[in-house]
Please model this.
Amino acid sequence: MRAVVFEDAGVVRVADVPDPVVVDPGDAIVRVSRTAICGSDLHFFHLKAPVAPGDVLGHEAVGVVESVGGGVTSVAPGDRVIVAFDIACGSCWFCRRGETQLCDEAAALGAGTFGGDLPGAQAELVRVPFADVNLLLVPDALDDERALFVGDVLTTGFYAASIARIGPDDTVAVVGMGPVGFFAAQAARALGARSVHALDLDADRLALAERVGAIPVDVTARHPATALAEATDGRGADVVIEAVGSPTAFESAVNVVRRGGRVVVVGVYAGETVEMQLGVYWARALELKFVGLCPVHAWWDRALAAVVAGTIDPIPLISHRLPLEDAPRGYELFDRREATKVVLTP
Amino acid sequence: MLGATEEDHAVPTFPTEPWFQDLIAQINGSADYVEAAATWEGDISFLVEAEPDKGIPEDVWGLLDLWHGTCRGGGVVDEARGKASAYVIRAPYSRWKEVVVGDLDPVRAMMQGKLRVQGDLPTIVRYVRAANELVHLCGEVETTFPDEG
Model:
């Protein structure tokens, strides 16, 4: 089959690789109809996380079940399914609590050694372990593009907004209008926020935010703390969702939130550090929640329902639709921030 | 630099070099500040964060070298010098403006994170009288603001 493989730092190519086969009784093989390039794929693209030449990349996919192992009961060949970006066993202590991102057997498609060396989903076929847990049936009424992001960025944004406990009087700020921020902003509106302020420095992303009802704040022109203060009689945002994953974004998030407000950090962090005056944080009674990976399996039913209901619309995010063979160009466009989201068709 | 075009005799604009020099003159003429800050040792940088839509296109660093109730020097400095101070207090321009005109209590603002402090916060908060006197002196500087006609 054809698949997107890592070649060297900054270089991917489309190559012939062996078709995946059922290895364990819980496996399913899915024929991919749509896959996408995610921000976290760029970590591997740039070799910021361990990946070997020839490894198949990608973890966002929707497709049709081709075959299943003998232990699979919830899906069958011919079913249209969404693939979870993080692979969970569904039976360990954490999974039974709905904290599937903390699974004892946690793995990820196309994430090299850190992901358990599972081949990725930017391919014609993908093997999905624990298929009963990691595949979600797609309603007939929903097309592939609307379903695709439920397995990762859409549900992650939905989750971040949900755990922020947004109420109808809340002013919400979302720091960073990448894909997760885009969906968090939509989810915040769907959850009833009084207003949602979208903070970014990229004109295209701000336009996208405005298109889904958020108030764009161009941080190159306006100080975000002043923008939120002016919108709230000087208090600051009730809820801030940090969807970037950088010290600057984190500091911006805690700088725009009001006293007693909530900050949900969904941006991805590794070894970054920030200086914090703990007494100030304590005196401000801030609620600070680090999300970690999204337990997508516990939330994707609700996120999918929001897409079906039309309260979350993923389509405006897609800037480029390319054949799988053009994946190297898609990576370059996404890496240069010339694409907001690239969807690939095998 | 913002202060480069200011005339010496003009009403200075916050946060320019002439404005900081007027503030330094106010500090050194204040008996109340001498008394309140008699044991204070340490330079303080004030980072006025950019607000392009309010006439502050880039960050401005202002420095006061405060020592035993007097100001030994200071003014607008570059980022490297500003960061080297014992204390850095940072906020957007709009918030500094509130401080300068007396609408925002500086010590409370530091505890609420409205003014963000790098350096030993308990020490600076102990000098509440000195801080308040500094703010009072800011109000004594005849000032124009870039976002006001």
About this structure: The two ends of chain A are 10 Å apart (CA to CA). The first strand of chain A starts at residue 2 and ends at 8.
